[in-house]
Amino acid sequence: MVKYELRYVNLNGKAEAIRLLFEYANVSYVDKREDYLEYTKIKLDPPLPRMPYLTVDGKLEICYTSCVLEYLGDVFGLNLHTVEERALARVWGVRLNDYINELKPLYYAKLYSEQQHNLENAISTTYEKVMMQDFCVLMETQIKLNGSGFIVGKKLSWIDFYVAHFVDMNMKLVQNADYSRFPYILKHKNMFFKLPQLTNYLKNRVQEIL
């Protein structure tokens, strides 16, 4: 049996889409979570792992959320059929990696007490620009044009896990944001989080700050 170990901090953040994929596939894995406050203390001492990262059988190591998800999608039958579909999903995966980095001012204001004074500004500027004016506009068009209800292709794939978690995480962070003008995104999110394979995990998972 293949042994998987996922290493990240004790947040949902960049790793939760990977955890959701493991749960959906009903594959056991070691969910290693380090204290994010302690991790920040050693970030000045490189080299550091690019978390989240996945170790397979103690040998293969894969980092970056989109790369881990695509790898597991291949292994668990949650990838796309055509070269074009796989390329488009990969593009969206990299975009989501970038969006998360661009939203760091908001995330840090939520996580660290010394940056909480930046929260309102992060919401009105960073969140509004990155999430509402950029990501949501492009993703709404993508889902609408794809026509199946999924992000890419005609079936559930790894990129659906990444998008659904990203939307859910950011909606919870800024609960008064108006997503009513993005009905395709909302429908996709609702469809994803009603998947029966995820019911028990979602019911019992720890509610982290982020």
TrEMBL record:
<dbReference type="InterPro" id="IPR004046">
    <property type="entry name" value="GST_C"/>
</dbReference>
<dbReference type="InterPro" id="IPR036249">
    <property type="entry name" value="Thioredoxin-like_sf"/>
</dbReference>
<dbReference type="GO" id="GO:0004364">
    <property type="term" value="F:glutathione transferase activity"/>
</dbReference>
<protein>
    <recommendedName>
        <fullName>Glutathione S-transferase</fullName>
    </recommendedName>
</protein>
<dbReference type="InterPro" id="IPR050213">
    <property type="entry name" value="GST_superfamily"/>
</dbReference>
<dbReference type="InterPro" id="IPR004045">
    <property type="entry name" value="Glutathione_S-Trfase_N"/>
</dbReference>
<feature type="domain" description="GST C-terminal">
    <location>
        <begin position="82"/>
        <end position="210"/>
    </location>
</feature>
<dbReference type="InterPro" id="IPR010987">
    <property type="entry name" value="Glutathione-S-Trfase_C-like"/>
</dbReference>
<dbReference type="Pfam" id="PF14497">
    <property type="entry name" value="GST_C_3"/>
</dbReference>
<dbReference type="InterPro" id="IPR036282">
    <property type="entry name" value="Glutathione-S-Trfase_C_sf"/>
</dbReference>
<dbReference type="GO" id="GO:0006749">
    <property type="term" value="P:glutathione metabolic process"/>
</dbReference>
<dbReference type="InterPro" id="IPR040079">
    <property type="entry name" value="Glutathione_S-Trfase"/>
</dbReference>
<feature type="domain" description="GST N-terminal">
    <location>
        <begin position="2"/>
        <end position="80"/>
    </location>
</feature>
